[in-house]
Amino acid sequence: MEFLGFRRGDESFGVRNYLAVVPTVGCVADLAVEAARQLSMAAALPHHQGCCQPPVDLRRCMRVLTNLCLNPNVAAVLVVGMGCEGVSAEGLASAVRGSKPVEAVDVQSCGGYLEALRECINAGHNLLLEVKDWSREPVDISKLTVAVKCGASDATSGIASNPAVGAAVDILVDEGATVVFGETTEIIGAEHLLAKRAASREVAEKLLKTVHRLEERAKAVGVDIRGGQPTPGNIRGGITTLEEKSLGAIAKAGSRPLAGVLEYGEKPAKPGLYFMDTPGREPEAMTGFAACGAQVIVFTTGRGAVQGFPVVPVVKVCGNPETCKKLRSHIDVDVSGIIEGVESIEEAGRRVLEEVLAVASGKPCRAELAGCQGAVEIYVEGPIL
Amino acid sequence: MKRAAMVLNPRDNVAVALRDLKVGEEVEVTSGGEVLVVQLLSDVPFGHKFALAEIKKGEQVIKYGEVIGIATRDIKRGEHVHVHNVRSARL
Fold this sequence. Notes:
The complex is a heterodimer of chains A (385) and B (91).
Chain A: E1 2-7, E2 13-14, E3 18-23, H1 29-38, E4 42-44, H2 55-69, E5 74-81, H3 89-96, E6 102-106, H4 107-110, H5 113-130, E7 137-140, E8 145-150, H6 157-174, E9 178-181, H7 184-187, H8 191-195, H9 201-220, H10 232-236, H11 242-250, E10 258-262, E11 272-276, H12 282-291, E12 296-301, E13 314-318, H13 321-326, E14 333-334, H14 345-360, H15 366-370
Parallel strand pairs in A: 3-4, 3-5, 5-6, 8-9, 8-12, 9-11, 10-11, 12-13, 13-14
Antiparallel strand pairs in A: 1-2, 1-7
Chain B: E1 5-6, E2 14-17, E3 26-31, E4 34-39, E5 49-51, E6 60-63, E7 66-71, E8 80-81, E9 86-87
Antiparallel strand pairs in B: 1-2, 2-5, 3-4, 5-8, 6-7, 7-9
């Protein structure tokens, strides 16, 4: 199985060719957005972290930003800094240098916002001239990382879109691709069942520890994540127990063994199916997936979600017939035939896979066509200081 | 022909209604290549479950090929399976 990708210097293969404009800190997020707007083929990653955070989060921010820059869909990187922030612009550029063209610009050295903006346009333009790989070539599927996530779910998610994506994920994993899913809150209740699929005892223990860590964090602010689950709305929709609800969410990750558990934004070492510790909220989850090297994100929805990510195409899969009609401009793969009783999960899964390969090979997804590509944020551990 | 219900995994002992089903209806479902005909003993709304086989009190209810709960009383083939006759297996 193959897709058409752009070869990078580090032997990864992109499915898009972006100049990523990456702010090191929230103070210059709007500078990054404006610079990207004025440059060609550029996409800003406007997060709001990078300063006034405990060391654990500054280290995480540096790791996530570095890995975002190393995402194969990024052809070149323009780092934009303030000058006094916790995550240094030059430090980030150094971590990326050698892998792809990179430059750093900071506001305080340039002498102001407008001066820095002019410097960004010059530097960004020169970076584009350094990009060498403008044509796609056939690439084995083992070079593809796909992340899966759900959002704006409803009663159709657990029986149509998630199982259909799960069927596609099983084929991808069997063919040698890497698949990552996350949303620690969503697996609570079925973590013991997921742990049974772990490739080793260490992986199972890490999964359970990851869930426990989140539950303790929630308890510290007075929230019992298991309490009140499934919700009255879930019960009206036919969900009987929390296990069933969580299994419906996990269904999008297919049925293959769990090769590993990743920290937020960590890159998997080899192909297979991985779980990453992420929240369910879209910007943080998708940023973590992009940082781990996902070139495509598959996003299931029931009620209809529109968000995308700046440098990664987000393919929407929906099983609700009404939503597929009402939000048709946002749905890439309509699997409502499962609910209408005219298509099997396997058939729908093959169509999801075909769309993933088409999008990986250059077909724009609906979020790209609509310009919904701004869901960026870095998941933090500690307080903001 | 449009399917009225679906079995998510061949190990499951419940099926999911794909439309609002009525008591007395004979519903055809496919499970692992095998076609079963189940007569419903209760109404089963869209997205809800009914039993494909008798599930005794204390036995496991299986969906997605996994245990989603334990029967709190005997459940007959064709009966609605929900919070009134199933509890979490983890309580």
